[in-house]
Design a protein that fits this description.
Blueprint: H1 2-15, H2 20-32, H3 39-64, H4 67-70, H5 74-96, H6 104-112, H7 119-129, H8 135-164, E1 176-179, E2 186-192, E3 213-219, E4 222-224, E5 236-242, H9 246-253, H10 258-264, E6 267-270, H11 275-282, H12 296-303, E7 312-315, E8 318-326, E9 329-336
Antiparallel strand pairs: 1-2, 2-5, 3-4, 3-5, 6-9, 7-8, 8-9
Helix pairs in contact: 1-2, 5-6, 5-8, 6-8, 7-8
């Protein structure tokens, strides 16, 4: 139905003289943010269809490329690619992000994300298919620029993220995410508890995270729903929760490895803890006494704006990093002590 609806929106908008691409994008934007029913299962199947469509797109691109003509303007196209990678895009990114609280590592990483993918080539293909003069040159240059970006920037993206320390530790995937019929935005989300995770050793009733309500523990062939049951490694736990709590639940069930400790810190506190309490507990002198009345969540909002997982602040030598979110509110903050 989504495919049929998308095609209908595209065709109807084009027939009325509008932009079919913009219309179908807005339709997808609305459909993708209306969770409930079988929507999430449908969206997962649409991912597979998107990969199939990309394969067909690249097949068509291959039919339009004439390898013998690519070299005619290869040097000029490579110079354009290098200019875009090292001058134009970094300059545009740094200027665009000036009003926002990004540090130099994040700006550098955003600058390195370039024109990888088929969309720029497809856009350059439209005038070619329309028969406009000199569009073959535009198509060939665009293709070389995208391929250069794909090979250089695309192949180094993961390495650069690790070097700049902007990549978040990978989270385990849920065993199950199923919509709860009649539950509105609530879903049944199931994770397996890994050894050494923060959930291990806690009681089932203590595993409520935001709106996520723990329902049952599946241990071998037994179902345990007593809130006083102690969680053990290997347990399967089901929560009734909104989809936006999935990352917080995954972090709760994930093994706390040395690399995760290095990234998030030695200890974890709630986002509603006051800065004054934190200062007293760790003997940190506040640079401004007025921030002592704020909670950690409020402090991040004052200095950064809307926080996300991985955002970092310093209070003296104490490093604070957002570990999990409860909707738009900070749920947990990792603390790294000065060494």
């Amino acid at each position: 139905m989504l495919c049929t609806g998308g095609a209908s929106v595209f065709a109807a908008t084009n027939a009325l003289g509008g932009s079919g691409f913009l219309a179908v994008y807005l339709a997808g934007l609305i459909a993708g943010n209306r969770r409930g029913g079988a929507g999430d299962n449908v969206l997962r199947s649409m991912d597979s269809m998107a990969w199939l469509a990309q394969s067909g797109m690249f097949l068509l691109l291959g039919l339009l490329v004439t390898p013998s003509t690519l070299g005619e303007h290869g040097i000029e196209a490579l110079l354009i690619a290098l200019f875009l990678m090292f001058v134009a895009r970094p300059l545009a990114v740094w200027i665009s992000l000036l009003p926002f609280h990004f540090d130099w590592r994040e700006k550098l990483f955003v600058s390195w994300t370039g024109l990888r993918g088929a969309v720029p080539i497809v856009l350059a293909m439209f005038p070619l298919l329309a028969g406009i003069s000199q569009t073959r040159l535009l198509f060939d240059v665009t293709l070389i620029v995208v391929l250069a970006s794909l090979l250089l920037q695309g192949s180094t993206m993961a390495w650069l993220a690790r070097r700049l320390r902007v990549s978040l530790p990978a989270l385990p995937a849920p065993l199950q995410v199923s919509s709860w019929k009649g539950g509105g935005h609530l879903h049944l989300i199931q994770f397996i508890v890994e050894a050494g995770s923060r959930a291990e050793g806690k009681k089932l009733g203590d595993l409520q995270v935001g709106e996520a309500q723990p329902l049952v523990i599946l241990r071998e062939d037994r179902r345990l729903n007593d809130v006083g049951t102690v969680v053990a490694a290997g347990d399967h736990i089901g929560w009734l929760a909104p989809v936006n709590e999935e990352a917080s639940l995954a972090a709760l069930c994930q093994t706390v490895t040395p690399s995760i400790k290095r990234f998030y810190g030695d200890f974890t506190v709630r986002g509603d803890v006051s800065v004054a309490e934190l200062s007293f507990a760790y003997g940190v002198i506040l640079p401004d006494a007025r921030i002592g009345t704020l909670t950690l969540d409020a402090l991040f909002r004052r200095r950064i704006g809307q926080p996300v997982v991985g955002d970092t602040l310093f209070i003296g030598d104490l490093r604070l990093r957002v570990r999990s979110m409860d909707g738009e509110r900070i749920d947990q903050v990792g603390i790294r002590l000065p060494h």
